[in-house]
């Protein structure tokens, strides 16, 4: 896929650090972008999923006869006639469960579990026939959510335990303490493009068009499920309508769609409906955390005791790391953080923008605010007083931590100094006004990833990688990196992404892709450029054959001699004169000493190959501080966010326009989480009932005020090849507690359970 050029760009815009507009933007807006399920293939059939209506039990009988007789129906799949697939390696690179993999089961462990699929000539026929399937169940009692006492305390996840000093004793002895419980409900990714795929078999070769955050990982799972070589799977995903963590892994409906295509010998399109997306994969699990803080009378932290739990499914394991921010944000001589996981009847929860960091910050950033009020201290002052100068858990220095600068810049721009401390002390007519602060952090993750750079005969260049762009800006920043490094105008760079036939890339998850792929492109481009200069100097047919090495420069697509030595020649002209049709270089993003590990996993850079942020001499993280104003209508309990100023440290920014957009997107999701988002579970049926965008509310433009974002980062050479840190998930961290803290300041009511809906304020 080639990018449509969106407009003419200034040279500075095209360089690294320039504000180049998204290269994929125009095609998306004009409807020219080819989304996965929009392909119209010869003989395409349509599949529709049927989901369980009970949350726990067994299918006694599934009557498909009426559906099979319905017009246009080609195949009805159930647990009884599905293909037996192989169990696939997990994303941590460990073997999958014993026995075959079956996407359709007779045993039911959550409401909305896939139980059947109907394939027909048209989507309408498949939908009509799906309604004719009759399932009779033997129902068992279900555990509806983390709120269900039947779920109990769950079981501990020892890997999550963090412990130093003697937190319990220090808390008991502390002169000032607070303790409270903080909760978050189930939350959902709800990308506007729902999940779906088109699968097509040609003998034992499989082509899948599917939106994906991780082409190689999903292609690998499909290869294993269907017992074919990885090379025989082609995953194509050039455009993705958002993912937010939900499109990284192969899902049961994908297995069903591919299986149906195999069994029918025809291509199959399967798209889950919006309500079905609420159980076809999991969003953020429900969480609860108890935090106790002990401090001196002048606000120095002495102890943090943190006990948390998240829900997981009956047969899957999802751990939402709730202690990650708790242990990083503030200096404390004593800390204990433990986490349990509780089994409930739900689909296995998944990843939603900043899994772990987001709810973790909700806890600690609310608790520190409570402590500030207990001490009658300014909430910003207490944060600065307990500033963590190093990573205490890893016992390593931060590579860079511009959090103090973020607090300073944010407070100054927001006007924090004008805040009056007491709750309910600021008012505008019938609106109570509240100002709150909340901080956040996100780690820098590193996984092997490759990019290919190709300088072509016409002097233009191509960048290729199976990495993806779901809107975050990969196409654009990779074009900028290649343009600047090669000395070729950005208009002459084509970036190809989202195709498993291209060099391997890791998951666009964990906010790592930008740093990894710009690193790989930079290395490949430097090497390609060196090769070009080498040829220019050494080739007997080159006009520069008599020159010394390293005296040539490349700019605007021309190779220039030293000083005022003339106009130089165009790259295309040089390649023609020396008889080369291209220069091609492949590079991996990891440093050379990590390459053997990378080679081992080259084909599938799994999450097991991801380096932790403390793997090395430093602790690598991005940081942020949000200053938020709310207006609360006293009569109705409605909360509006009226002003946001956030200052963030993501290191060096490759494209500030796109970074600002990413940060604002994260903040907007944080506002949704604080005020609107809640999967409401009907306790009787253990079912999420608000499973559409009319009932599961996400923010609209009218909910969002002007958001001001300020970059306080400095290039961080330890974090990545080009000095950037994490961007994509950072800004959603810390927003919800900043809003809850502002609501407390406005109203005097401390809301400890999200979302902050109006009934909680009345
Ligand atoms: N960037 C930059 N300079 C840096 C780092 C990043 O200019 N130093 C910019 C680039 O435009 C880059 C973007 O920020 O494309 C995000 O970079 P990064 O933080 O590395 O995140 P990833 O590319 O790995 O993207 C994944 C991340 C995650 S994990 C979620 S969840 C999320 C997010 O991105 N989902 C998104 N942002 C999203 N944005 C959109 N539009 N849609 C989603 O589904
Ligand atoms: Mo993002 S939740 O790590 O895909």
Automatic annotation (TrEMBL):
<dbReference type="Pfam" id="PF02738">
    <property type="entry name" value="MoCoBD_1"/>
</dbReference>
<dbReference type="InterPro" id="IPR000674">
    <property type="entry name" value="Ald_Oxase/Xan_DH_a/b"/>
</dbReference>
<dbReference type="InterPro" id="IPR008274">
    <property type="entry name" value="AldOxase/xan_DH_MoCoBD1"/>
</dbReference>
<dbReference type="InterPro" id="IPR046867">
    <property type="entry name" value="AldOxase/xan_DH_MoCoBD2"/>
</dbReference>
<dbReference type="InterPro" id="IPR036856">
    <property type="entry name" value="Ald_Oxase/Xan_DH_a/b_sf"/>
</dbReference>
<dbReference type="InterPro" id="IPR037165">
    <property type="entry name" value="AldOxase/xan_DH_Mopterin-bd_sf"/>
</dbReference>
<dbReference type="Pfam" id="PF20256">
    <property type="entry name" value="MoCoBD_2"/>
</dbReference>
<protein>
    <submittedName>
        <fullName>Xanthine dehydrogenase family protein molybdopterin-binding subunit</fullName>
    </submittedName>
</protein>
<dbReference type="Pfam" id="PF01315">
    <property type="entry name" value="Ald_Xan_dh_C"/>
</dbReference>
<feature type="domain" description="Aldehyde oxidase/xanthine dehydrogenase a/b hammerhead">
    <location>
        <begin position="30"/>
        <end position="141"/>
    </location>
</feature>
<dbReference type="InterPro" id="IPR016208">
    <property type="entry name" value="Ald_Oxase/xanthine_DH-like"/>
</dbReference>
């Amino acid at each position: 896929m080639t990018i449509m050029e969106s407009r003419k760009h200034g040279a500075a815009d095209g360089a690294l650090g320039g504000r180049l507009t998204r290269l994929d933007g125009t095609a998306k807006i004009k409807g020219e972008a080819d989304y996965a399920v929009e392909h119209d293939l010869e003989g395409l059939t349509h599949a529709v999923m049927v989901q369980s209506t009970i949350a726990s039990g067994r299918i006694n009988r599934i009557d498909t006869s009426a559906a099979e007789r319905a017009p246009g129906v080609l195949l009805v799949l159930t647990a009884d006639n599905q293909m037996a697939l192989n169990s696939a390696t997990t994303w941590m690179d460990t073997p999958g469960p014993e026995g075959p993999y079956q996407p359709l089961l007779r045993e039911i462990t959550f409401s909305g579990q896939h139980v059947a699929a109907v394939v027909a000539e048209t989507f309408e026929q498949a939908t009509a026939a799906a309604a004719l399937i009759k399932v009779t169940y033997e129902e068992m009692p279900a555990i509806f959510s983390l709120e269900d006492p039947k779920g109990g305390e769950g079981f501990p996840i020892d890997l999550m335990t963090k412990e130093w000093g003697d937190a319990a004793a220090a808390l008991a002895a502390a002169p000032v303490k607070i303790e409270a419980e903080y909760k978050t409900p189930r939350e959902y990714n709800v990308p506007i493009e729902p999940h779906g795929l088109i699968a097509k078999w040609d003998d034992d070769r499989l082509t899948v068009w599917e939106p994906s955050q991780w082409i190689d990982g999903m292609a690998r799972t499909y290869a294993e499920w269907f017992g074919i070589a990885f090379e025989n799977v082609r995953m194509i995903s050039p455009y993705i309508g958002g993912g937010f963590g939900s499109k990284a892994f192969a899902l049961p409906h994908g297995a069903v769609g591919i299986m149906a295509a195999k069994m029918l010998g025809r291509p199959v399109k399967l798209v889950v409906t919006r309500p079905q997306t609420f159980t076809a994969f999991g969003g953020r699990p429900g969480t609860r955390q108890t935090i106790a803080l002990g401090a001196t009378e002048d606000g120095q932290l002495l102890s943090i005791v943190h006990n948390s739990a998240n829900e997981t499914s009956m047969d899957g394991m999802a751990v939402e790391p709730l202690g990650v921010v708790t242990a990083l944000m503030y200096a404390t001589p004593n800390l204990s953080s433990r986490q349990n996981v509780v089994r409930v009847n739900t689909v296995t929860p998944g990843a939603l923008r900043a899994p772990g960091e987001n709810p973790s910050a909700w806890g600690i950033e609310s608790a520190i605010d409570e402590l500030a009020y207990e001490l009658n201290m300014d909430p910003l002052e207490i944060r600065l007083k307990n500033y963590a100068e190093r990573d205490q858990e890893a016992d390593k220095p931060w590579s860079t931590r511009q959090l103090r600068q973020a607090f300073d810049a944010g407070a100054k721009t927001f006007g924090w100094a004008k805040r009056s401390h007491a709750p309910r002390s600021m008012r505008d007519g019938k609106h109570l006004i509240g100002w709150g602060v909340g901080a956040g952090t996100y780690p820098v993750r590193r996984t092997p990833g490759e990019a290919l750079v190709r300088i072509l005969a016409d002097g233009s260049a191509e960048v290729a990688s199976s990495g993806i762009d779901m809107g975050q800006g990969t196409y654009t920043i990779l074009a900028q990196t290649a343009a600047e490094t090669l000395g070729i105008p950005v208009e002459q760079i084509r970036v190809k992404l989202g195709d498993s036939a291209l060099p391997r890339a890791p998951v666009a998850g964990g906010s790592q892709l930008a740093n990894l792929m710009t690193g790989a492109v930079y290395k490949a481009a430097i090497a390609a450029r060196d090769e070009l200069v080498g040829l220019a100097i050494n080739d007997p047919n080159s006009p520069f054959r008599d020159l010394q090495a390293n005296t040539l420069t490349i700019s605007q697509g021309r190779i220039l001699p030293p000083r005022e030595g003339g106009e130089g020649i165009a790259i295309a002209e040089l390649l023609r004169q020396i008889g080369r049709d291209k220069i091609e270089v492949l590079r991996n993003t990891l440093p050379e000493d990590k390459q053997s590990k990378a080679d081992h996993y080259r084909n599938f850079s799994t999450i097991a190959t991801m380096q932790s942020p403390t793997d090395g001499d430093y602790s690598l993280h991005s940081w942020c501080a949000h200053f938020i104003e709310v207006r609360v209508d006293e009569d109705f309990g409605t909360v509006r966010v009226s002003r946001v100023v956030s200052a963030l440290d993501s290191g060096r920014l490759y494209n500030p326009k796109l970074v600002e957009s990413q940060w604002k997107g994260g903040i907007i999701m944080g506002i949704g989480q604080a005020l609107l988002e809640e999967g409401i579970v009907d306790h009787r049926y253990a079912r999420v009932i608000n499973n559409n965008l009319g009932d599961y509310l996400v923010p609209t433009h009218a909910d969002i005020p002007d958001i001001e974002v300020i970059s306080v980062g400095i290039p961080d050479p330890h974090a990545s090849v080009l000095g950037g840190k994490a961007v994509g998930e950072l800004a959603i961290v810390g927003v919800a507690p900043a809003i809850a803290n502002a609501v407390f300041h406005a109203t005097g009511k401390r809301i400890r359970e999200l979302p902050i809906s109006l009934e909680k304020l009345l």
